[in-house]
Amino acid sequence: MNVIIGLINGMITGATPILLAALGGTMTYYAGIFNIAMEGMMLGGAFFAVLGSYYFESWVVGILFAILGSLLMALIFILFSVKLKTDEFVTGVALNLFALGATTYMLRQIFGVKGAFASPGIVPIPDIDIPLLEDIPVLGQILSGHNLLVYVGLIATILCHYLIYKTRFGLRLRAAGYNTNCLDTSGVRSDRIRTISVILCGIFCGLAGSFLSLGYVTLFSENMSAGKGWISLAAIILVNGNPWGIALISLIFGFSDGLGLLLQQYLPSQFTSMVPYIATLIALYVYSSRKKKEKFS
Amino acid sequence: MKTKFINGVLGIVIALMLGAIVMWIQGYAPFETYTALFNYSLGSFYSFTTMLRNSVPLILTGLSASVAFASGPVNLGQPGQFLMGALLATIGGLYLDLPPILMIPILILLAMLGGALWSGLAGLMRLWFKMDEFITTLMLNMIADFFTYWAISYPLFDKEAYSPMTPAINPNGWLPEFGNFNTNIIVMILAFIAVWFISKKTVAGYEWRIAGQNSLFARLGGCEIDKNYLKVMLLTGALAGLAGGLVVMAGPHRFLKGLGANYAWDGVMIAMVANNGILATLLYGLFFSILQTGALGMELITDVPREFIMVIQAVIVLVVVAGRGYFNILMDKIAVRRKAKEGLE
């Protein structure tokens, strides 16, 4: 029983950063931007989260800093890909590498360390116990006592769904991706919608980053996003950007993450660390074969 | 050609100036820092040859990305293919014992085979299951990273070492060195000529380029898209694998943890900034090597951490690529304005 509860909790924890980043990415997905910069935005967010939390001794400032750091990356993205019309793919790759270089550089300049910075001075984001719910035996253990951002992720999923499908902005957002000219001729500047979508993406990736460095663990290490931005991109593509679909896919990836940890008793850790990436390949295979069938039927 | 050159030089100068401003704000001396940087990569025979040696993996992974992007496949798997090439060359070097004249070519072939296997895997996933190579190659990168880490931690582990690494490979498989001039440069030049010849002078290269520009046109014109796709994936994987093998054979002569980390995305960056041109890839590869080799000197002389170069590289890519696009838009605008004027008169 405890193993199962542990696995479920591991699944939820592992899913959260991917969910948050993917919700951000889905905004740009609908706006018709090929955005691969989630990885860099997340990494920037993770670094600034530690910076804010350490110097102001507050996780709230940590989260705010994370959002600002990630927004900084988003602004660079907007400047190049929306304003200067640079290739989105090139901008994304360069931005990811910029984030990697800049955080490694600042890690050394500001904290004077190489590789990783951990300190008792970094204030982590607290876990939340939900009253009443926490007293229910098994359910309480599963649903209560998670990191604050886990619940934020859940609320964000609902909000995103509402925003994309039920509001005027959502309609314009989808129109920006579906038919830019149509949107422009109806008097809405598609560039502005795109800009807003990238800013939203930056906010979500900032949250995801702060979960990495203040929730999951309480430290910053070089390249700590470790491909999570790419996995979130895969999640978006697999469900065509539907927020609830993204939540489901994130849980599957979170499960593979937890499964990897569990398997560590039997396999060398190098193999168990591969599990999320293999899971992505399998998910992609299922998606592609389903799509192929649709085509022929 | 001329505008491209001007655009590249301008982009580099702007990026270096931006870097100088950042350094100046932090209280470093920008001019001394750049002098130290170029001194340590170009200043003497020793530093020049070191720079050439370091440029080999950059140029080869860059060529891999350039050829792939120009022909269509978005092969982002250079890091993984690099590692698998290095691993296979290391295994060959550990278990084979032949005279150098046989050993070196065999290890080179093994390295290319390792890279081609890994990219071929992604290619087959695309052809059989329609899985996008853009994501599969990325995932295979991570898998190769962990797999090689396991291989050097357990089966190939050097029992006398304190961190994960293999024993040194058979000295017969070491690339000969003259002074500080390593023959990996010669291998790279041969590979460069081969790639140039294939893409400029053969029918296959022509078909690839056309398929990269307009896949539908190529198919209607009678090119075998699938077969060409697989060929490109195999060739580009082999190039990245070769880069990995040469690093082992020229440098540490063993597979160390984090071997390919420095070259991970550099190939893709170089291809982007070079706009997938083959000669441009060579030149930008050399320039990135100047930056990376000189970074150490910069750190020694003026205390600017060498990680700063990673930032500069990304800025160069952004500025040059954005400049190229914007330059064209600007030119079009001027042309349109001139035409409008002529129309008025």
- N→C terminal distance of chain B: 33 Å
Q: For the report, how would you describe the main beta sheet of chain B?
A: 2 strands, antiparallel
- For the largest beta sheet of chain B, what order do the strands appear in spatially? 1-2
Tally of DSSP β-strands of chain B:
2
- Taking Cα atoms only, what radius of gyration of chain A do you get, to the nearest Å? 19 Å
Rg calculated over all Cα atoms of chain B:
22 Å
**Through-space gap between termini of chain A:** 44 Å
Q: Biggest interface in this structure?
A: A-B, 42 and 39 residues
Return the average pLDDT of chain B rounded to an integer. 89
> Per DSSP, what share of the residues of chain A sits in E-state strands of 2 or more residues?
under 5%
Identify the CATH architecture of chain A.
Orthogonal Bundle
Shape call of chain A: globular
What is the helix tally of chain A? 13
Biggest sheet record of chain A: 2 strands, antiparallel
Membrane topology (chain B): Multi-pass membrane protein
Organism (chain B): Anaerolinea thermophila
Keywords (chain B): Cell membrane, Membrane, Transmembrane, Transmembrane helix
Protein name (chain B): Putative ABC transporter permease protein
